[in-house]
Amino acid sequence: MSTYDRRLDTLEKDVTAMKQDIIYKLDDTNHAVTIVNAVMGRMAQDVKIIQSQIKTIDNEIKIIDIRLDGLDTRVARVEEQLNAQGEDIKEIKRRLDTFETKFDSIEARFDSIEEKFDQVLKAIAALSPRSEQ
């Protein structure tokens, strides 16, 4: 065999080995691409599910906002009522203080009248005919 034939034979073996290596690498790459495609498909499904869940959560948040607005309105009304009741209580206390002052004045008048009545009774007792005996 000539050197040319040996070199050609070696070259053919190298080309065959390279072909097998390339085929192996392509198979490996195809397998990896298939896995990536499957993962990407699953991720796309997950993204759709997540988007759907986000829309649901967004709607629920809107409903909660509406309810909170209603609650804010109710709380504002309750605060107004409490303020009005507070004013009413202040007015009642003011009136009670006025009544107490008037009652103290009336009590002083009764004490004065009672003293005068006692004096009148003593004067009558002193003038009565029984006291002369």
Report on this model:
With about 130 residues, the chain is mainly α. It has a domain at about 5-90. The chain contains one helix and no strands. The chain has one helix spanning about 5-125. It is rod-shaped, with a radius of gyration of 55 Å. The model has no long low-confidence stretch (mean pLDDT about 90).
Characteristics:
1 helix; 133 residues; mainly alpha
| SSE class | mainly alpha
Query: H/E element string?
Result: H
* Unreliable parts: none
What radius of gyration results from the CA coordinates? 55 Å
The major beta sheet can be summarized as: none
Average predicted confidence as pLDDT? 91
Number of strands: 0
3D shape: rod-shaped
Number of helical regions: 1
Secondary structure layout plus pairing:
Blueprint: H1 3-127
Short description:
The protein has 133 residues and is mostly helical. It has one helix at residues 3-127.
